[in-house]
Amino acid sequence: MNVILIPGFWLGGDSWAEVVPSLEAAGLTVHTPTLQGLGSVDDDRSGVTLASQTAEVVALVDELDPADELVLVGHSGGGAIIHGAVDARPDRVARAIYVDSGPTPEGVAINERLDATGADAPLPPWEEFGDADLRDLSDEQLSWFRSIAVPEPARVAHDPQQLFDTARYAVPITLISSTFTRAEIDGAIAAGVPYFSEVPLMERATIVELPTGHWPQFTKPAELAQAILDAVGR
Question: Where is the AB hydrolase-1 domain (predicted)?
Fold first, then answer.
């Protein structure tokens, strides 16, 4: 089984470093791409869009042996990217797993309010994040995170999601939720919150609570790895 892990904003593929060993020990083949614009603070992000990053993931899907099962995992903003890839290749994806994120609907941006300077949207000051986001992150981890953070391509945050194929609804999904409870997600769905509007349309959706901050790959990597393994039946 191939598993592609897509990080959230400001992070490269190496942000999954503490999660990968447990997945590989369970026999999974793990791919952790660093998407365009996130390799270095010096990268040119002017041409990077939500659609172009999604196309990168679709290209990786197309490179893998179709005889092998494929699972997509997206953290935070990476959830929109994997959902776009599911939409593009619904016949190739066995399951999509959204880590403190969700299947971003048509026309909805990941974060249209994220401040940007030109093509760059840098990591905001910690004061702009909620307490739930930062839960369990030590001062040392916060300092380290800021030291490795790369500006997010602004159009990845600001562009509306584009979806085309309702066959995506047949792909099973798992939401591993760290900053929302199951009850809060159910309430948001019932209230018609746009961000969660795709969830009730999915034929098979599972919600798993993993209480911690917004970056469980840093705060609870072993527990996150186990939640992913549970989702794929390993």
Answer: 3-227
Chain centre to alpha carbon of residue 27:
22
pLDDT recorded at residue 234: 81
Range of the domain at 134: 2-232
**Mean pLDDT of the chain, nearest integer:** 97
Say how many Å lie between the first and final Cα of the chain, rounded. 10
Q: Which of 17, 56, 15 shows the shortest CA–CA distance to 36?
A: 56
Cβ contact 8:101 at 8 Å: yes
- Contact between 31 and 3 (Cβ < 8 Å): yes
Cβ-in-10-Å burial (0-12, 13-18, 19+) of 234 comes to: middle
Q: What's the angle, vertex CA 49, arms to CA 82 and CA 51, rounded to 5?
A: 45
Q: Are strands 95-99 and 152-153 parallel, antiparallel or unpaired?
A: unpaired
CB 228 within 8 A of CB 210: no
Binning pLDDT at 50, 70 and 90, where does residue 75 land? Answer: very high
Domain count, the chain: 1
For CA atoms 51, 56, 62, 64, the dihedral sign is negative
CA 26 from centroid of its chain's CA atoms: 21
95 contacts 71 by C-beta, under 8 angstroms: yes
Separation of alpha carbons 177 and 195, rounded Å: 14
